[in-house]
Amino acid sequence: MKNKKVALVTGSSRGIGKETAIRLAKEGYHVVIHYARSKKGAEEAAREVEEHGVETFIVKGNLANKEKIEEMFSKIEERFGRLDVFVNNAASGVLKPAMELEENHWDWTMNINAKALLLCVQKALPLMERNGDGRIVSLSSLGSIRVLDNYSAVGVSKAALESLTRYLAVELADKNIRVNAVSGGVVDTDALKHFPNRESILAESREKTPAGRLVERSDLTDAVMFLLSDQAEMIRGQTLVVDGGLSLLT
After folding, report:
1. Under which main EC class is this enzyme filed (predicted)?
2. Residues of the chain above pLDDT 90, percent
3. What is the per-residue pLDDT across 214-231, written as a single tens digit (0 to 9) for each?
């Protein structure tokens, strides 16, 4: 068991995280399924992952809580003794205009979407160093570089995530650990249901995306898998934008 590579995907009980976990299983990785609330979803994801002949390990953790992060990585170390891939997919945030944000809205969003990356990488590093290799990819969004309605806190947190990605990539390069991010255009996922203007977002994106369609979950998963692959060896600290050309328009 310990000779096989291990991947942790946060927020992998559903959506892009779940699809990424399944793709990693197809590549032969044992997969750590992380969830915050939906144990049922995590168990279903684990069953689908295990269909590909690998082991799964389910962990629950509030990524806004440092102690819970430490507990999660202690469990991974105890179970597998190593970690080769970390996909930082879990995200949350309060969707309000900036002038309506409370301090706790800001703190929650920044803690989950930005600070958690730092704390998780700090705990992942010793497990990756044991094997002399590590690959880290985070999921971001166009709100990091574009102003979107009701997205101020999340957009700033994703901008921080992308900046941290650059710093980590340089700092960890001599340890043979690659750090990158994938920024997606509008994807019709469960998360989008929380947007008060969901329908207008989808309609506008369909109309304006040069590629002629919305970005799908598989498009983002493809990008994540590429950045984790050997073919991306010399890509460091970059945010790969997968939006069908939407962000190129003013």
Report:
1. oxidoreductase
2. 85
3. 999 999 999 999 999 999
User: Is residue 117 within 8 Å of 161, Cβ to Cβ?
Assistant: yes
DSSP for 46-90 reads HHHHHTTT--EEEEE--TT-HHHHHHHHHHHHHHHS---EEEE--
Q: How far apart are CA 148 and CA 136, in angstroms?
A: 27
pLDDT at 123: 98
Q: What is the CATH topology of the domain spanning 6-242? A: Rossmann fold (3.40.50)
H-helix or E-strand containing 244?
none
First and final C-alpha spacing in the chain:
51
Count of alpha carbons within 13 Å of 38, Cβ hemisphere only? Answer: 16
**248 and 193 Cβ atoms separated by less than 8 Å:** no
* Phi, psi dihedral angles at 185 (to 5 degrees): -75, -160
Provide the whole-model pTM. Answer: 0.93
Q: What is the DSSP letter of 112?
A: I
CA distance 198 to 210: 20
Q: What is the pLDDT of residue 186?
A: 80
Rounded CA separation 8/59 (Å): 10
**DSSP SS3 for 114:** helix
Q: Is 84 exposed, middle or buried (0-12, 13-18, 19+ CB in 10 A)?
A: buried
Q: What is the mean pLDDT of residues 170-193?
A: 86
The pLDDT value given to residue 1:
46
